[in-house]
User: What shape does this take?
Amino acid sequence: MNKFELPNHSLMKQPEFVFGVATSSYQIEGGVEEGGRTPSIWDTFCKVPGKVDKGDHGDVACDHYHLWQQDIEMIQGLGVDAYRLSIAWPRIVPQQGLVNPEGLAFYERIIDECHARGLKVYVTLYHWDLPQYLEDKGGWLNRETAYKFADYAKVVSEHFGNKIDVYTTLNEPFVSAFLGYRWGHHAPGIVGEREGFLASHHLMLAHGLAMPVLRENAPLAQHGIVFNASPAYPQADKDQLAADYAAAENHHWFIDPVLKGEYPQIVLDRILDKAPMVLEGDMDIISEAVDYIGINYYSRDVVRFDENGDIEKVQIEGAEHTHIGWEIYPQGLTDLLVSLKDRHDNLPPIYITENGAAGDDQCSGGVVNDEQRVRYFQTHLEALDNAMNAGVAVKGYFAWSLMDNFEWAFGYEQRFGIVHVDYQTQQRTLKQSAIAYRNMLIERAEENK
Ligand code: IFM
Assistant: This one.
């Protein structure tokens, strides 16, 4: 297939629907010691033996710090409407109380280049690279970090204002809190139930504290937050409660505070004394109105109760999985979006801020035949179209990722890019999926002329 087809064509008929590609700072930039940047928790974590596959790290990554100009030219060549990137907090505030003009200038060049090439810019303020000096003071376990985040949001939004088209406070607070402070798979590698939930509350507070700051400094921009969300299905009827709980921990725990001003009771009832300390007024801060929410969808969870009453994930026999081991389940995207619409009367418009598949892609003679990823995008675009036809308001879709990059604890082994990166030469090569995306967008542009 050399072009994604949108069978119901509802996406194609909306010229204002935004198609884009996404990346994040630590995953692509490299240049970790350049331009006045100081270490983030990921620089530290990567140095701990056994934490990242093959000892990989983001020191060079895709060398986007130096190759940003050609990368933006490449993005424009894909025919997308927008580029979603993140800003590295330790490039902007390398020490407490210090603003780094070189860091601001780096992102300003990128933003200007995008606009000059007709691309809208979606900027995430926090995609997991917390300054190490803040972690040294407790990181997200320290309530003060939420206030530091609001200060950082102030610096960025005062500088860029409406020049950033769409601001995102946090990317996937679930991952920051639970992988970072509960299960220890991600930086800073802390393990503890209480810690995970406490970090989650401080992250949500950080989001809420930043919102009015962003609105004041960038009144014409859109402001919101991005959640990862995997719908949960019971393995058997008896496991329905397990599925309800899994979904509640996975995304309602993070979405409900923003849209309902409360944490889901089902989780509070289960975690009991591990629940975070919520101060009076916190939930009002967190539930400040947002213009949109971003949803990152990759796969679903199928769950059951084990013999101890704990919830466990099960693998579905015969299902297709990507290289990273995640089941390919496009229907989950439709189900998830429809379930969010049913749960929240006040659901704001949604962007699919990430969707994609990991592969073990090889480049041979300038061709990367990522046939599974092509099918993945095709079927997920259909699933999105179905959700929109069922009445869910979705404003855009971003492929994860623009190019292969540092996939956190999996290192460089898992390739999520629609563009292949040769890490020896930094050569970029469009995979078949990028070509199919581009061809679909060319057709859309012609249809909407
Ligand atoms: O690479 C990550 C990204 O940083 C956040 N969302 C999920 C992607 C794939 O794991």
Remarks:
- The chain has a mean pLDDT of 97.
